[in-house]
From TrEMBL:
Gene3D superfamilies: 1.10.1610.10, 3.40.50.10210
Classification lineage: Bacteria, Pseudomonadati, Pseudomonadota, Alphaproteobacteria, Rhodospirillales
Pathway note: Nucleoside biosynthesis; alpha-ribazole biosynthesis; alpha-ribazole from 5,6-dimethylbenzimidazole: step 1/2
KW Transferase (keyword) present: yes
The name this protein goes by in its record: Nicotinate-nucleotide--dimethylbenzimidazole phosphoribosyltransferase
MF terms (GO), sorted A to Z: nicotinate-nucleotide-dimethylbenzimidazole phosphoribosyltransferase activity
PANTHER family xref list: NICOTINATE-NUCLEOTIDE--DIMETHYLBENZIMIDAZOLE PHOSPHORIBOSYLTRANSFERASE
Gene: cobT
Organism of origin: Niveispirillum lacus
């Protein structure tokens, strides 16, 4: 585990700004599943010493890893955890239980090893990286107009893409951003419709007055940004934040680099949903770790057709739920790699005639 911290907030872009058009072009030409690797994993699974399907979703997880790593058997010695932190203009509107300064303070806590994710990263021997996204320049308050210019949004996405490299076996994605459950709720309302109250919840723990304020802020955000309803990337630009753009970019980069992705809670899944809305196949290399206690997450999981692995009532963010999948995935892989086959163990297969039975 390392507490690597990256202060180079953005890639310099003197020759050619990254643009959302480029992201659209990449999305139109995404690599598909490696069905050969997936089938090879399935075929081994079917020989192993257990009734077919008896390891349930553990079997599915090994096939998913093989399919999206493009490798049978898959590997899991090099998982990475990435947290993107972003500052939100709407955080000034009384929508969080915590002050906006907590975003930067938590980044420092991640660097110092004080947070929940540090313990999980260390325990599970995962590389942890924290990327601060321009915290000195919060997004604009989206009740007054777009949260980001196209340039800021695209640059953050390009930065997220650069946080990933080929050779990683897994990416666990998380975020830190005071106010981002309001941003995520607005983004979900723009992408999938429904009243703001469908998508707003307590976040870090606001009371019922706070929830009313959040609903009003989301409604004002939708009213101030009519173009957000016309296109998923425009919704991200108008209502999202830099950490959400970076998460979106990282998900795309992982697809290109054949790195399977584990998504964490509500804000992280909302960023991923932008890609789903652009192309439902764009999240096929992603799983969702857990169902967050944030009520909008359940609705969002239905909208993007994902079934979470855990239901632990967590609502922390910072990739804490995603990190818990590492030991589960390793457990699945240990069985897949090391179990004997029926033949090797000398155990009779399903429906095999008892030895010495009378015909
Ligand atoms: O992961 C979740 O589902 C989740 C639910 C509620 C809150 N959070 C975290 O809390 C922060 C956002 O909450 P809020 O109340 O400031 O909008 C942000 O740092 C998230 O990582 C995360
Ligand atoms: C303390 C704290 C830790 C967090 N980690 C992720 N989001 C968070 C929000 C708060 C408020």
């Amino acid at each position: 585990m390392s507490g690597h911290h990256d202060h180079s907030h953005h890639a310099h872009d003197d020759d050619g700004l990254p643009s959302l058009e480029e992201i659209r072009r990449v999305l139109a030409d995404l690599p598909g599943p490696d069905l050969e690797a997936g089938t090879a994993a399935l075929q081994r699974e079917q020989t192993l010493l257990k009734p077919p399907g008896a390891l349930g979703r553990l079997e599915e997880l090994v096939q998913w890893l093989a399919t999206w790593q493009g490798k049978a058997p898959p590997e899991l010695t090099h998982p990475r955890i990435v947290i993107f932190a972003g500052a939100h203009g709407v955080a000034q509107r009384g929508v969080s239980a915590y002050p906006p300064a907590v975003t930067g303070q938590m980044v420092q806590a991640f660097i110092n090893g004080h947070a929940a994710i540090n313990q999980l990263a260390e325990l599970h021997d995962a590389d942890l990286r924290v990327h601060e996204m321009d915290l000195d320049h919060p997004t604009s308050d989206f009740t007054q107009g777009p949260a980001m210019s196209e340039e800021v949004c695209a640059r953050a996405a390009a930065y997220g893409m650069m946080a990933i490299e080929p050779g990683l076996h897994l990416l666990c994605l998380g975020e830190m951003g005071i106010g981002n459950t309001t941003s995520a709720a607005a983004l979900c309302a723009a992408l999938f419709g429904g009243p703001a109250s469908d998508w707003v919840g307590p976040g870090t723990g606001v009371d019922s007055e706070g929830i009313k304020r959040k609903i009003a802020v989301v409604e004002a955000g939708l009213a101030a940004n009519p173009t957000a309803l016309t296109d998923p990337f425009e919704a991200l630009r108008c209502l999202g934040g830099q950490e959400l753009s970076a998460i979106m970019g990282a998900i795309i980069a992982c697809r290109l680099a054949r790195v399977p992705v584990v998504l964490d809670g509500f804000a992280c899944t909302a960023a991923a949903a932008v890609l789903y809305k652009a192309d439902p196949k764009a999240l096929d290399h992603c799983i969702v770790a857990h169902r967050s206690a944030e009520p909008g997450h359940t609705r969002l999981l239905t909208a993007i057709n994902k079934r979470p692995l855990f239901e632990f009532d967590m609502r922390l963010g910072e990739a804490s739920g995603a990190a818990l999948t590492i030991p589960v995935l390793r457990s699945a892989l240990a069985c897949h790699l090391n179990m004997a086959t029926f033949a090797e163990a000398g155990v009779s297969g399903k429906g095999e005639k008892p030895a010495g039975s009378v015909h």
